[in-house]
Amino acid sequence: MDNTQYRLEDSNGSVVGFGFTEHNRVSNILLESHLTIKSGCDCAENAEGRYNLGSKMFCAGGEPGVSPCLGDSGGGFVIEINGTFYLRGLVSFSAKGQDTPCDTSKYTVFTNVYKYRAWIARFITRRTWPNTLQKCGHDSFNEQSVCNDTELHEHSFLLLGQKKGITLLSFVTGIELKVANTAGLLDLDFDCTSGRLYWTEFGKQQMLSAKYDGTDVKPILNGISPEGIAVDWISRRIYYVNRAQNTLEVASLENSDTRAVLFKGFNSLQKSLSIHTEANCSG
């Protein structure tokens, strides 16, 4: 993203994709459309009442017969500035033709990526540049803030769960840290965005949590018999088996009182859970 390009009108860019062609079929080769961003008034006039352009959108059009089409949705609108290409928009939608999947005489509508720069910056986990961003403060964050909400906790470590305790072994420093003493450890998982561990112990009707260094130990679920825990650090949820009720349940990591039953009649022997996400903590 280019943070300096506030004005969009009359900027030229391009979109590539394998969307439908004038022959009403998906292209076998990667095609490119060169488009010019239009003013809000031009967009409204061209739309002829078919849609209202939102504050976080823009429209663009090109030569007659040239337009992104069905199958190009989500593709990037990029602008070249001094030899560098910047992502400025994402294909949102285009008008449908009378007998064709798209009307190339109408402008294409894009999501304005710049409007979401703060949200994007908050969740980027790569270590190349978030270190230079100020950490987001929940009391000061607003729509215009550009900050890093991913606390860059140590990611290169091994968690060793034993019956009587949890140990963290850092691959970076080589330090072995006893995180917690336990009375019969059952299950263990971690949340890489908040830097916290979650575990259950035999005979305790609660789930416990602590920071990576073992401080701030606190119960997050009480009055149940949780086993087989799995943390979804992206959606901020934790899944577990309630042994007493034979149910598979989910709770919010932000508010553990917010919980729901997913499956009933869950066999008490089936308690191993794992979460698959589309990203990982190390970026």
Structure description:
The protein is mostly beta strands. It has two domains: 11-118, Trypsin-like serine proteases (Thrombin, subunit H, Beta Barrel); 157-264, Neuraminidase (6 Propeller). The chain contains two helices and 17 strands. It has helices spanning 40-47, 117-123; strands spanning 12-17, 31-37, 57-61, 76-81, 84-93, 108-112, 157-162, 165-170, 176-181, 185-191, 196-201, 206-211, 218-222, 226-232, 237-242, 247-252, 259-263. The strands form four sheets. The protein has a six-stranded antiparallel beta barrel. A four-stranded antiparallel sheet has the order 10-11-12-13, with no helix packed on it. A hairpin with a 2-residue loop joins strand 4 and strand 5 (84-93). The protein is elongated. Mean pLDDT is 79; it is low at 1-6, 126-130 and 140-144.
